Amino acid sequence: MAEAQSRPEGSTALLWTSITVVYAAIMLFPIFWMASMMVKPNDAMFARPTQFLFVPTLEHFSYVLEHGFHWYLLTSFLLCTVSTALVVIIGTPAAYAFARFEMRAKDDLFLFILASRMAPPVCLVIPFYLIFAKVGLLDTFLGLTLAYMTFNLSFYIWVLRSFCRDLPVELEEAAALEGWSKPQIFRRVVFPLLRNGIVATAVLCFIFAWNEFLFAFMLGGRAVQTLPVSIPKLITSQGVRWGEMAVVGMTALLPVLAVVFVLQRHIVRGLTLGAVKG
């Protein structure tokens, strides 16, 4: 009897495993295809029918390095890292203040902060352009960093505020009874508990900044070019350089995958924080 019951369960598990494998293969197929294009010669790339067996080449990598795309990659990485660090430094105390402290018109102020993220980027980039042109921040690394920080800060505060509200206030009250000040409570009690939520939200902000095109195109100019802005250079008068575009696309994907892989433990814990209430 027990054997008969276990067979349907095993069949169901096998069915769901097969569906998951097929779904993963469909989702990952474009990445595998782009990876093959990185080393596929041009004559094999445009051959019909499609050639799955070919002699690999590194000429696409040589073109990307000769035209300085690695510098665009470095610019993007530094820009996203610095702007995300500023978001964490400024946004963490702000989110905690919105979650714990009573202040005048707190809900209205929080809605104003959230509205800056809800607005379409094209509505914000023109005022940014005019202001930066007046104060001399146009086409500068500092100006683009501040722009990235601005549109990510509201999202960070909004998400981390929910994490702060899920923390047990009794721990902070116990620390206050011990004579700890508010900064001490935040540094020694709240911050360690928020670490996973901070990492998860910061990774999302990093990805948003990494994929940003409009602000980098309008405010960075030729002086500060990020990787997304440099990709249209591969569309030439002779046609699209698909092999080089595949190299740049895979290169743009690797830093994000590396960040998620290294911090996956904190990301999973942060995203599930507060999901189960006891």
Q: How would you describe what is shown here?
A:
With 278 residues, the chain is mainly α. It has 2 domains: 2-38; 60-271, MetI-like fold. Helix content is 77%, strand content 1%. It has 13 helices and 2 strands; from the N terminus they run αααααααααααββαα. A two-stranded antiparallel ribbon has the order 1-2. Strand 1 (235-236) and strand 2 form a beta hairpin. Helix 5 (106-118) crosses helix 7 (141-166) and helix 7 (141-166) packs antiparallel against helix 10. The two termini are 37 Å apart. The relative contact order is 0.12.
Number of domains: 2
Task: State the strand order across the main sheet.
Answer: 1-2
The termini sit apart by 37 Å
CATH topology of the largest domain: MetI-like fold
Mean pLDDT: 84
Low-confidence stretches: 274-278
Short description:
With 278 residues, this protein is an all-alpha fold.
